[in-house]
Write a structure and sequence with these properties.
The protein is α/β, with parallel strands linked by helices and 240 residues long. Helices cover 37% and strands 30% of the residues.
Length: 240
C-alpha cells in the first residue's frame, strides 16, 4: 500500500483544513515546493496535491505552486481541485502531472471522466468525497443525493486508474479514518481505491492495509505536518 503525503494549496501556501472548512485553514509551509522536497527526501513514492481555491473556483488557481513542485521534483504527483474540462486535463498532463483527479465533474459530467480515461490511460483518477455516505462537490460546499458507492460502481468499465475516497467528517480531524466505509467501497469495485481523511497514525495505516479490502494506498496530511506520523517510518512499515 502506497502512502501519499498531501500538499493542500490555498493562496499559494501548503495548508490543512478541518473537515473541508476553508475558514479553518492552518498554514504549515509558505513554500509548497520546499514541502514537497521534504516528503521526497523521506522516500515517498507519490505526492498528492490539491488546489483548494481551484475546487471552489472551478478552475486552476494555485497553478504556479503546482508547477514549482513539478519542476523541482521527479516524484509522480496527482492533482485535484478545479479540473473540470478536457483542456485543463491536457494542460496538466503536458506539464508533468502523473495523474489528474476528477471530482465534481464525476457527478456533473461523467462522460468527461470516461472520455479522459480513454484518452489518457492510467492518468485519470476519480475523487469521491463523501459526507455521511453522500457525495459532496465544488470543494465540498455542496452535498448531493448521490451515494458514494453507487458513483464508484458507475465507473467500473471506464478505465479510471484509481478512486480516491475521502470521508469529509474525518478529514483533518486526527480521529482516524472511516475504515468500515472505506473498506466497503473498496470491496464493491474492482478499481484500486486510495483512502483519505483522518489517517493520523501508523496504527491507522496498518488497519487500512489489513482491512481485508483491496486498498491501493492512503493519503495523510495533518498527521505528517504535526509530527504524529513519521513519513519515513510509515513508508518502511508499509513495505515490511
Amino acid at each position: 500500500m502506497i502512502l501519499y503525503p498531501a500538499i493542500d494549496l490555498k493562496d499559494g501556501k501548503a495548508v490543512r483544513l478541518l473537515r473541508g472548512d476553508m475558514d479553518k485553514a492552518t498554514v504549515f509551509n509558505d513554500d509548497p515546493a520546499a514541502q514537497a522536497l521534504e516528503f521526497v527526501a523521506a522516500g515517498c513514492e507519490w505526492l498528492h496535491l490539491v488546489d483548494l481555491n481551484g475546487a471552489f473556483a472551478g478552475e486552476p488557481v494555485n497553478g504556479a505552486a503546482v508547477e514549482q513542485i513539478l519542476s523541482q521534483t521527479n516524484t509522480p504527483a496527482q492533482l485535484g481541485g478545479g479540473i473540470r474540462d478536457m483542456a485543463t486535463i491536457e494542460m496538466w498532463l503536458q506539464r508533468g502531472l502523473a495523474r489528474v483527479i476528477l471530482g465534481t465533474v464525476a457527478v456533473e459530467n461523467p462522460a468527461l471522466v470516461r472520455e479522459a480515461a480513454a484518452a489518457f490511460p492510467g492518468k485519470i483518477a476519480v475523487g469521491i468525497d463523501a459526507r455521511d455516505g453522500r457525495v459532496a462537490t465544488k470543494g465540498w460546499a455542496e452535498v448531493t443525493d448521490v451515494d458514494a458507492t453507487d458513483l464508484a460502481k458507475s465507473f467500473e468499465d471506464a478505465g479510471v486508474a484509481a478512486i480516491i475516497y475521502t470521508d469529509i467528517n474525518r478529514d483533518g480531524a486526527m480521529q482516524g479514518p472511516n475504515i468500515e466505509a472505506t473498506a466497503a467501497l473498496a470491496r464493491a469495485v474492482t478499481i484500486p481505491v486510495i483512502a483519505s481523511g483522518g489517517v493520523s497514525s501508523l496504527k491507522d495505516l496498518k488497519a487500512l492495509r489489513d482491512c481485508g479490502a483491496a486498498l491501493n494506498g492512503a493519503i495523510s496530511g495533518r498527521a505528517l505536518y504535526d509530527g504524529a506520523l513519521n513519513l519515513k517510518d510509515a513508508i518502511k512499515a508499509l513495505r515490511d
